[in-house]
Amino acid sequence: MSDYLLTSVHNHIGYITLDRPKALNSLSLDMVRGITAALMAWRDDPQIRAVVLQSSSEKALCAGGDIRFFYDVGAASPRGDSALLEDFFTEEYALNHLIHFYPKPYIALMNGVVMGGGMGIAQAGPQSCVRIVTERTKMAMPEVNIGLFPDVGGGYFLSRTPGQCGSYLGLSGEVIGAADALYAGLADVFIPSAELPALMQLLHTSDSTDLRAQIHQFAAAYRDQADPAGSQLAQQRDLIDTVFSADSVSNVMQALREEGSDFAQKTANTMAKRSPLMMCVTLEQLRRSASMTVSECLRMERDMVRHCFKHGEVLEGVRALVVDKDNTPAWSPASLDAVSRDQVLSFFAQVWPDYAHPLRYLQELAS
């Protein structure tokens, strides 16, 4: 078990507590393995009726994968095939699959920062999960900011948001709060952070046979405090659907510039700082993912991440953001105009034959 992970059982409910506050609970390989081990042990244990994923800190549930680890290991392996990187992404994506199809109620307290890999361990299957957001929630899939793409099943859950909201979130990497998360279908209920102790007390004493329904009932009193209908995504939905339905990122940017509203200009300025190549790859990923299963998306993303580290865009992004902190990544190519269709398609080239794919055993299960 990882030093950054605590597990306990109360009232036949298993609790997984991420405990790496100085790094905003960024996931290490040991943490991925610890979460997986706990979920596997509890999955078929008749004494465990539900699982709660939470943090020891109010600042974050999980800010994502340990990108400094990615840089250190990836920089030492120019082919992008470091054994440690291979293990991390294979096991992380397998964990995402395990969570998506978990057969017991899976309750994710998305209090504070929930980004990237944090989304991967919070977006469980729709029939089993209860994804709780608070006024502290800061949610994003910001991978294009570091030269990556929205992985951990991001292709699956972003492509199933209303209209083109997932394309907007994936290409811009923008941070959203509780109301937007609820509107996008990336959260289920809002509970003020001050009421989380009362929720925990309820879980510690409840003998309900339907915890999901009980949590929804508990949250009903706070429904008006995070109204999805008043969210920015709802207010900008027509613009988002029109602009982000374009068939290329260049056309998206042109439409944003021409639209002229404050929201459109802010979005265009944000996207201008992202990796041109990885925005194009992300758009292709989301278009493909819309008709794929969870397992197919994760297998595709596993191929894509190998190509990312071999290309080196992600290493440059992490260097600029975390290592040197100059915030001036030298993206390659440097502009959208220089990104070719062949470059984008190369990220979807098969890395392993089907029989040897590291995630070949993933199957579609009943959620």
TrEMBL record:
The keyword Hydrolase is annotated on this UniProt entry: yes
SUPFAM superfamilies in UniProt: ClpP/crotonase
Pfam families: ECH_2
Gene3D superfamilies: 2-enoyl-CoA Hydratase, Chain A, domain 1
Organism: Undibacterium rugosum
InterPro entries linked: ClpP/crotonase-like_dom_sf, ECH_dom, HIBYL-CoA-H
Record GO biological process: L-valine catabolic process
Domain Enoyl-CoA hydratase/isomerase span(s) in chain numbering: 13-348
Gene Ontology molecular function: 3-hydroxyisobutyryl-CoA hydrolase activity
Residues spanning the membrane: none
Protein name: Enoyl-CoA hydratase/isomerase family protein
UniProt keyword annotations, A-Z: Hydrolase
